[in-house]
Amino acid sequence: MKIFADRNIKHFFLAMAASLLAFLFLSEILAWLMYGKFFLWLLLLFSLMAVVLFAICFGYFYRQNRILEEAVAQINAYLDGDVNARIECDDEGELYRLFHSVNSLAAVLNAHASKELQEKEFLKNTISDISHQLKTPLAALNIYNGLLQDETEEMPAVKEFVTLSEQELDRIETLVQNLLKITKLDAGSIVIEKSMENVADMMRDIELHFAYRAKLEQKKIVLSGADNVCLLCDRDWLTEAVDNIVKNALDHTKTGDIIRIEWGGFSNAVQISVKDNGCGIHPEDLHHIFKRFYRSRFSKDKQGIGLGLPLAKAIVEAHNGTIEVDSELGRGTVFTMNFLIPTKL
Q1: Environment class of residue 289 by beta-carbon count within 10 Å: exposed (0-12), middle (13-18) or buried (19+)?
Q2: What is the pLDDT of residue 85?
Q3: Any long-range contacts for 74-81 (C-beta under 8 Å, 24+ apart)?
Q4: C-alpha–C-alpha distance, residues 313 and 199, integer Å
Q5: Rounded distance between C-alpha atoms, residue 113 and residue 198, angstroms
């Protein structure tokens, strides 16, 4: 029986049985010494008393066990997502005081969860509003810059400043867009719509996206992987993640360097890696590169805004994947993404 699964209850019944038997034995010995014989009625009386005591104790512990099982069922329901699950605690006693405290704890957790959700929603809406408000002046400034470039062909110094201004505007626009994306991911307001996608096709699109920049900077992007590897993912978002990693590789390589995008399918996972033979990452920075707005004191890069890699990590984790980095100063860096393949049991 379930109540005897509790070792303390089992020991309680054994101790009670031993006490009753010892008391009966001593009573019969005393009767023998006083009257010279055993009394059958005394044996029957003690047996009846033992049965009644055992029944009373068993009934009590059985009811307590039922109450505890119902409490555990409510706790499990709460853990499974039913935030309204509560334990009945209308009676008196220490056990019901405990149940009342558990209910109070559940109410506090619900309040904290609701507050956190509201804060995330507020942050998402705030950044979204700011982003939309910034788009109009940014677009206007880009137009003005374009007009200035057309008018400064004969003024090299002004043209140089206009070009630098355009670069800074691009940085601001990238920052705004990344802030908006990463905030939406944090708030859970973006639904990752997965479908079976061909990894080779995705990587070729990424190569095409950076082809002009790679040619301009005299760098090379090399693809390596099987054409039949497929992955259940949101194509747009996963492309965004790999894009950010490839952009990071281009930012930290020099003329003539190579960026390799490799992928492969295994029995239980799909792996995508981005390798470069650039300057590498300082060991002190390896544990911080996925932190937002992190700027290394060893990096010579002054253009990065510190959101590309955190956004890539957030997207990969939204796909239930993992991302790792391995780097050696002066030798290059490898970013490896692993995505488990769901298996049917």
Answers
A1: buried
A2: 86
A3: 75/102, 78/106
A4: 18
A5: 38
Sign of the alpha-carbon dihedral angle for 190, 319, 294, 243: negative
**Residue 302, pLDDT score:** 47
Residue 50 and residue 23 in contact, taking contact as beta carbons nearer than 8 Å: no
Report d(CA 302, CA 295) in Å as an integer.
9
For every residue of 125-137, DSSP letters joined together read HHHHHHHHHHHHH
Q: What token pair was written down for 250? A: 């281009």
Q: Would strands 321-328 and 258-265 be described as parallel, antiparallel, or unpaired?
A: unpaired
Q: Please report which helix (H) or strand (E) contains residue 312, including its range.
A: helix 308-318
Question: Tell me, what's the pLDDT at 275?
Answer: 93
**Of residues 321, 214, 209, the one with CA closest to residue 273:** 321
The three-state secondary structure class of 270 is strand
CB contact at 8 A, 273 and 263: yes
Q: State how beta strands 258-265 and 220-224 pair.
A: parallel
Kind and range of the H or E run holding 232 = strand 230-233
- Identify the pLDDT of residue 77: 87
* Residue (of 321, 322, 288, 282) closest to 306 by Cα position: 288
Average pLDDT, consecutive stretches of 10 residues, N- to C-terminus, the chain (345 residues): 67 79 76 68 77 83 83 86 84 80 88 82 71 70 71 66 70 71 68 87 92 90 91 90 90 89 90 90 80 66 66 88 89 92 60
Assigned token pair, 280: 């590498």
CA–CA distance from 213 to each of 94, 246, 247, 256 (Å)? Answer: 72, 11, 10, 13
265 forms beta bridges with: 270
Q: Are 226 and 266 in contact (CB under 8 A)?
A: no
Residue type present at position 112: H
Give every CB contact of residue 175 below 8 A, 6+ residues apart in sequence: 305, 307
Of 183, 170, 162, the closest CA to residue 138 belongs to 170
